Amino acid sequence: MTSADLTDLARDYLQTWADPDPARRRTAIDELWAPDGRLVISPIGLVVEGVDAIDAHTTRVHDENIDGRGMSFTYDQHAEAGDAALLRWSMRAPDGTAVGRGVDVVFRDEDGRVRTVYMFMGVD
Question: Structure pTM?
Fold first, then answer.
């Protein structure tokens, strides 16, 4: 994965959570994720499988945190190794204060589509 590829992945993955338009978020999910993609969220032990369920989950997170509370998400760091990308993120309050942090480890398939994400919330 090149640096440009990693930057594109980070941008595109963030769009699936943060784009204000639900139709664009869904299109981004369909383009980025493998149809049978899997999102594993720690520490709550939630496993979300398939693009329909991923869309429903990201919509809920968007509606509750971005629309509902005015939060935003940014990446503080990203790195890659083989088919894995690490995306360290911060959830920011409207005043810019970081109110949550985590790390997503993203694995892509041979076509470059996201097949599995392990999300670790509360990682500083």
Answer: 0.90
